[in-house]
Every structure is written in C-alpha cells, then in structure tokens.
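Quick start: read one record
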Amino acid sequence: MFTGSRRGFRLGVVLAAVFFIPTLVILTSCGSDPTGGLTAKSPEATNELFNGVPDKQNHPYVGTAIYTSLNAPGWHQGCTLTLVAPKIAVGVAHCWWGVDPNNLPEGLIMAITFDPVAIRNPDAAGFGELVARHLIPYPSYTWVIDPLFDMNNWPSDEVFGHDVALVYFKENVWLDEYAVLPPKGLVEALFTAGYLDGKQFEYVGYGANIDPTDYLAIGNLFGTGTRRRGLADFNDLWAGTLFTLADLTKGEVFCEGGDSGAPALFPSTNLMAGLISSAYYDTTWDVLFNLGARLDGDMAQGFLSQHVPIPNTIEMCHNGRQSISVPVSGVVAHANHGDTIGKCSSCDGK
C-alpha cells in the first residue's frame, strides 16, 4: 500500500506534462475487465494491460477535447471528459484552469469529440490529422471548474480532490448510455469494509501508447488520439484522492499522456469512482501510481452537487439475475451476499 500520510502529500515526482498555447494550459497525465465491481482480478487480464487496448465502442460516453490554431500543422489532443447526461460532461479543472471561455486567444480553434479515434499520426509536437467525424465546436459548449481548485498548490490531496470541472453543451449529445456519478461516500464505504483490497478500476482515455518507464523524458509525451482502456490496481484512498497503481514487472501498465480527466470506472460498469489528474512513477519499486479526485468525496461532491443531480443509489446485480437499486448503506451487505456492482448482463428484473 502507498505509505503517504493522509495528513500530507509526499509523492516525490508527480508526472504531469504541460502543453502551453497562449493563455491556454492543457495538462496531460494517466488515463477492461473483471466481472462486476467487487470481484477479484482476472488472471488473464494482465496480458492486455500494457497501455491498455483500443476501446472502440465500449465507452461511447468518454470523449476528448482537441484544439488547433490558424498556423498549426494539425490538431492536438487535449484532455479526456465523460458524459453523465446529454448536455453535461465531467472532466478535470486543471485542463480549463485560467481559461476564460469568453476571452480565448485569437486564432484558437477548439472542439470536443466522442468518436473512438479523434486524431491520427501525431508528429513529434503532438499535432496530427483530424479523423473524427463528429465534432462539437466551441462555442457550442462552455465549462465551469471547482472554484476551490488552485493550481498554485499542486500537488496536494486538496488540489486533487477539487480537480473537477463540468462541461455544458448547448445541444444534447444523445447516447444509449451515459456514465453515472457515484453517491456520496460509496468508495469510502467499500474501502472501509476492505472490499477494494485486491480489486481494480478501469480507466478510459485517449492517451499515448508509450512505455511509462520513459517518463523521465516526459517532455515528448503526447496522446495518440485513439480512445483506449485498461486496468489498474486499487491502492489507497485519501480525503480527496483515489490512488491506483500498475506493477510494471507484471505488465500492469496504463498511464497515458492526454488522459487528464480519464474516468476511473468500476470494471464492466458505467459507474465512476474517480478521475485521473496525474501520476507518479516510483523507480525503487518499479510501480506507477495513478491519482486524481475521488468523486464520492466531500471535496468533489461539494462542487458537483451544486450543478448536477447526484444519485442516492447504485445498481447491483442480485443473485446473478436481477438488477436492483441499492443505497450506499446497503452496498456492503449486498456484496457480502455475493451481489456485484453494476447491472446484470441478463436479468429478470428492471
């Protein structure tokens, strides 16, 4: 387990590549499938974890912000975001921090896409060919960040806990399914009961297909523009931060440039547990820590609850055949009886 104190934040080197265009800051960092949210790790899953696998249409509610300018050689990938409603997506505050939607740099062109491939063949500077067919151009959307987020205090538990933003679309983005925000205290309840030990979360993002042991040369870390997914082991939970890790010696790798904002999902579900803000590569133990806001915590929910409805229940598969709604207070008891987080794949109930 990570040995950092809950009262302080001591990570040593926090990995976050920063891309500057005039007054616009884009940070990138890290961004599947045991059955159910509470089952043990799948032994064969580790064969697919090196930087994840192409997601294709598995998570259509996960998209990416992209941008270019009048003189740019192509389009550049920005941060990942996740639709939780037809007009609302969740992302990280640091991608929009200091950016006034009413006063953008002259010549800057921005868009958002939920296509599985957004950009192809990026060059050494991260600019590539736009291949996404469905673009939502700015100003067809705007954003708001948690007002308590302060990049000047990076890194700290409080900064990561408030590293949350919402993107609002003027028109509906219609999908068959959207991601779901967690009820308050859900991850904490599972953590306290010991149900997260030995479990994994699934990350989905558009990051770079690279060897994270090269992060010492992080200056050239750019995204590939293709939506990818992968697993990481649960590690620890702080007041505002969810930690996962990937053991590089076992091929458990999923940290990708361009994945700031990538959702941490309960595997095989659309239920979010947290977001990716950054990563920390421990050279001593050869493991990679992913870290970001836990969306069930007081910090993130203090902001989110002012803007979007927060569910009071989650769906669980009861007796392997019926999907039921369960409040946080009952999740552990249902898990003790073998129920798993998420809808049943084939059920008799609703």
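Residues 19 and 25 are 6 Å apart (CA to CA).
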